[in-house]
Structures are given as structure tokens and as C-alpha cells.
Design brief:
Outer membrane protein beta-barrel domain-containing protein, about 10% helix, mainly beta, OMP/PagP_B-barrel, about 220 residues
Length: about 220
């Protein structure tokens, strides 16, 4: 009986060890970033937020516990942000509007749990921990006749002191990996951290969607 139990234990350990896989590799893709600003607005025109279309690049590591479950960690860089547009108002004889572009140079550390529906198809849920390395804003005043950059010679100012450094964004995603290790994935991250650091009482959040490709090395 003891021999049978020992053989069964060895068999289970062997099958578990076989099921474990470690893969790693590069990934890159396209990102659509938006920012939401909740604060009291004046009556000078209509304020709206437009997405910023940008990229991300980095690497990933995946540890598959068994045929159905695994974990994944990544290290990515992405210049996130958004565009803020105030539609034109009448200013005397001119029709004047304003557009502001916010650029957040962000290092992202997504950590997720994965469920493998099939060997190649998986879904994931986790959180993006974003460290904002740089924050810049460029404002352009537009009229019927010309556009004029403001706030400095190039129109771009450093707003790093007004932005908090950590952006936490829970996410869900889906991935399909081919037999050769090439994969495509997509996810949406919803920003929950208040990035405003100016003491005005307003709330600023950054959310983003990503779709991209990569390649995984390793595995059995």
C-alpha cells in the first residue's frame, strides 16, 4: 500500500512538473489613451477629452502552473496622455478655441492571472502599475486666422510637479498564441488613481486600451 501511495505521489508530481511552463519574450503594439478630468468648469466654451493614439514596447514573462492557469508579468514603456479640446468662443471679431495635449511618459508593470480556455487562447485579469517618469503639456490657441502656441517658446511646459507618480489601472484582456510562439493580445486598463497633485480638489484619471503582438520563447 505504501509503495502504491509513493508511486501515485511521484506520478502526480511528475505530471504537475510537466504542466509547468515558463515563457518570456518581447511585445509591442498600439495604445489608445484617454484622461478624465472631474472639476468645476467655467462657461467659456465646451470642454471635451479626445484620445491620444500612441504605442507601447517592452517584454513579458509567463509562468503556466497547469493546463488552465498561469501568471504573467510585464515591463513596458508607453507615452500615454490625451488631448483636451475647448471648442471656440466668440472673442470680438474672432472665433477662438483651445487645444491642450498632455504627454505622460510612463513605465508600466502589468501583473495578471491567466485562464487558458484552450492551449492557445487565454483571458487575463490584473492590474497595471504605471510609474510616470515625465509629464508635459502643450497648449495651442486657435482662431479663424491663425494658431498660436502659448506657455513657453515651444508651447510645451513641464507639469511633472502637478501629476502624481503612480497610476494604478485594473485591466482585463485576451490573448491568442500560435504554435510557433507568436501571439496577439488586447486589453483595456481603467485608471482608478487620482493623478492630480495641484491641490485644487479635482480628480484626474488615465485609462487606456492596448492591442499588440509579441513572441514567446521557452516552454516545454
Amino acid at each position: 500500500m505504501k509503495k502504491l501511495l509513493l508511486i501515485a505521489a511521484v506520478a502526480v508530481m511528475g505530471s504537475s512538473a510537466y504542466a509547468q511552463e515558463f515563457r518570456f519574450g518581447p511585445k509591442a503594439g498600439f495604445a489608445m489613451s484617454t484622461m478624465k478630468i472631474d472639476e468645476n468648469q467655467d462657461d467659456l466654451g465646451k470642454r471635451s477629452m479626445d484620445p491620444k493614439y500612441t504605442f507601447y514596447i517592452g517584454g513579458m514573462a509567463e509562468y503556466k502552473i497547469n493546463d488552465n492557469f498561469g501568471f504573467q508579468a510585464e515591463l513596458l514603456y508607453s507615452p500615454l496622455g490625451a488631448k483636451e479640446k475647448i471648442d471656440g468662443i466668440n472673442a470680438g471679431i474672432m472665433f477662438v478655441g483651445e487645444q491642450t495635449k498632455v504627454n505622460l511618459g510612463t513605465v508600466l508593470v502589468p501583473i495578471s492571472a491567466k485562464y487558458f480556455i484552450t492551449e492557445g487562447l487565454s483571458v487575463a485579469a490584473g492590474a497595471n502599475f504605471g510609474v510616470i517618469l515625465s509629464a508635459k503639456q502643450k497648449t495651442v490657441i486657435g482662431s479663424d486666422f491663425a494658431d498660436m502656441e502659448i506657455e513657453g517658446e515651444s508651447g510645451e511646459v513641464d507639469i511633472k510637479d502637478d501629476i502624481k507618480k503612480l497610476n494604478i489601472a485594473p485591466f482585463v484582456g485576451v490573448e491568442y498564441m500560435f504554435e510557433n510562439g507568436f501571439f496577439i493580445d488586447g486589453r483595456y486598463s481603467m485608471g482608478v488613481s487620482n493623478l492630480s497633485n495641484d491641490g485644487s480638489g479635482g480628480k484626474v484619471t488615465n485609462s487606456f486600451a492596448q492591442i499588440g503582438v509579441g513572441f514567446k520563447f521557452g516552454g516545454n
